[in-house]
Amino acid sequence: MSNGGEGNPIIRAIKESVAWRSLFRQPYPTTSRTRALAVMNNVFLHLHPVRVKRHAVRYTYTFCLGGISFFLFLNLTVTGLFLMFFYVPSVSQAYQDIQAIEASVAFGGFVRNMHRWAAHLMVLTVFLHMIRVFYHGAYKPPREFNWVIGVLLLFLTLALSFSGYLLPWDQIAFWAITVGTQLATYFPIVADEASFFILGGIQIGQGTLLRFYVAHVIFFPLITAILMVVHFWRIRKDGGISGPV
Amino acid sequence: MTIEKRPNATADKNAPTQAPERAPVVSPGSGPKLPGPPGVAGTERFRLLAYVKQESMVRVDKRPDETVLTWPHLLRAEFVMAMLITALLVVTSVFIQAPLEEMANASVTPHVAKAPWYFLGLQELLSYFNVTVAGVLVVPVYLGGLALVPYIDRTPYKAIRDRKLIWVFFMCLMIGGLIITFIGSFFRGPGWNWVWPWDGLFFNL
Fold first, then answer.
1. Nearest by CB to B81, which of A52, A64, A130?
2. Do A146 and A195 have their domain in common?
3. B86 Cα distance to chain centroid
4. Which end of chain A is more exposed for a tag (fewer CB within 10 A), N or C?
5. Would you say residue B173 has pLDDT above 60?
């Protein structure tokens, strides 16, 4: 696998070309040293430490729930970006756009389905990740504040899901958000202001749709991405994931 | 007991062995002996540095750090999981359609208006309590309660049996939330009246 095609002169010529060598700074890593370098020298891989605790790679220790949540976030970013090309956040057009995505966009229905199911799954995996972390007592010092960041990320996951719920502008979306946002009208003292702030008007309409759209596609994802960076960074700084009970 | 061997105690001017009559002098022969030149058997001095309990001796002996290389071990696990989740999403997305009803219409109220499933516990609470209490206090108290977990539980232990208080607190939040979400999802119908799931399901994802 590692030296695949070495005997083939064409593949060898490609691998020895200037372009290939500029792209891959080292051959496929097969020794401890080159494997360590591979993780250190790659901007995406260097999110990881070079070595991890043996128990940390067991599926049954973490069930990969945090990683799955992050993977779903990436999936939702890609599928969401695709959907944005075909969607206009306007009360007169949004619903027709969803119908058009399902009917006439190549893979449109498939991508919309994936965006929706991945979103529901992410709410679930974030909750399960929290329960797993609690079970292992991984919020213990020095990881207390990373737990707090995790709770904020849970809140943001719910906010992302809730703000996306309105966008299809069908009856499910409209009335679910009506019920959800009515809570704001029960705030003490600032009820009217809170309601207006969330709805962008006195009732759900164009202002709400635009507000939820902007929150859904840029505001919440950006805050979530920033907090995820802090979340991952702190895991590294606190000496990797917690030990077994 | 941890005993430090001091082959040349007299050379160390700061050592507490300056009081020879109080320091235990151990030698193969009988009776105390004066410190001799370094490396000469039978002339070493020893002193007691610390008394270490048996349990902690076991931990000292354990290998401190068992690690594996990220490449390939962790990356392989991540790749396998990413492929499994992708496969799950592809199959789900091919065979299960995301719901889409008629276009939003503020003048047509549906029989049952439900929030997204993760808020149905909250909606269920709304039917029990004053709206200000349920609607406005529950969410901050719930999330705040979760955020405070590491500050409530200050015990150094990780095993569940050693932190029962926080376990009960957390499980109340989780199981309580699960039960009311379940009721709100599958046992509530038009007018938020009780409906058994086999009499009609009012649930959208």
1. A64
2. yes
3. 28
4. N
5. yes
Residues in chain B within 8 Å Cβ distance of A40? none
Low-confidence ranges of chain A (pLDDT < 70): 1-6, 245
Q: Tokens 């929150």 sit at which residue?
A: A215
- Is there a domain that residue A1 lies in? no
> pLDDT band at B6, cuts 50/70/90?
low
Query: Which two tokens mark B42?
Result: 């039978």
CA pair distance A43, A186, nearest whole angstrom: 48
Residues from chain A that touch B65, judged by Cβ atoms under 8 A, are 53
CB A202 within 8 A of CB A196: yes
Sequential DSSP letters for B96-135? SPPP--SBP-TT---S-----GGGHHHHHHHTTS-HIIII
Sign, Cα dihedral of B130, B132, B133, B134: positive
A2 is a domain residue: no
- pLDDT band (50, 70, 90) for residue B55: low
pTM for this model (two decimals) = 0.83
Predicted confidence band of residue B32 (pLDDT cuts 50, 70, 90): low
**Spatial separation of the C-alpha atoms in residues B121 and A171, rounded to whole Å:** 21
The Cα–Cα gap between B85 and A124 comes to 13
The reported pLDDT for the residue numbered A27 is: 84
Please tell me the predicted confidence (pLDDT) of residue B11. Answer: 46
Q: Are residues A154 and A195 in the same domain?
A: yes
Q: How far is B185 from chain A (nearest CA, A)?
A: 13
pLDDT digits (tens, 9 = 90+) for B83-128: 999 999 999 999 999 999 999 999 999 888 888 999 899 889 888 8
Backbone angles phi, psi at B37, to 5 degrees: -65, 155
Range of the domain at A67: 62-237
The CATH number assigned to the domain holding A214 equals 1.20.810.10
Task: State phi, psi for A51 to the nearest 5 degrees.
Answer: -120, 145
Selected residue of A175, A185, A199 to mutate for chain B interface (largest B Cβ count, 10 A) = A175
Show contacts of A98-104: CB within 8 Å, 24+ apart.
A98/A168, A98/A169, A98/A170, A98/B100, A99/B100, A102/B100
Cα B137 from Cα B117, distance rounded (Å): 19
